[in-house]
Amino acid sequence: MAVQTFENLEHWYDEHPDASFGEIEADARRQRRQLMSQALTLLINGRDVGLQPEAPNCESCGQVMQFEGYRPWTVKGLEGDTPLTRAYYVCPRCSGETLFPPGSQAEAAGGSLE
Ligand SMILES: [Zn+2]
Question: How many whole angstroms from 56 Cα to the centroid of ligand 1?
């Protein structure tokens, strides 16, 4: 990804040979945001999507929750938006009681789990 980012910069500079330093910097900043978003997506999703070997218990009634699938959600970070995937559980007894098991990596990003 970093190599691709550099190639993108070179390609952009080839097409804008008269660009000022500030214009190059502005393009580099756009490229950096994309690179960061891709890298963080790969890092966090690759490590922990919240799927647990045993389904968690409902916080309200203690019933074992059911795995419903994966839901996409987005963390708005300093370097752009990062699309993530989280495992999603629901309680069969309590209607509407849902759980996205918090992943330590995702939590550290400060995103809402809602
Ligand atoms: Zn419940």
Answer: 11
Number of Cβ within 10 Å of residue 65's Cβ equals 23
Token duo for residue 40: 């963080």
Question: For 40-71, what is each residue's pLDDT tens digit?
Answer: 877 777 776 677 778 888 888 888 888 888 88
**What is the whole-number distance in angstroms between the Cα of residue 67 and the centre of ligand 1?**
13
Distance 66 CA to ligand 1 centre (A): 10
Tell me the C-alpha to C-alpha distance, in Å, between residue 42 and each of 57, 60, 83.
Answer: 29, 33, 10
Residue 26, sorted as left (phi over 0), alpha (psi -120 to 50) or beta, turns out to be alpha
Four-CA torsion 63, 72, 77, 53, nearest 10 degrees: 40
Residue 32 Cα to ligand 1 midpoint, Å, equals 43
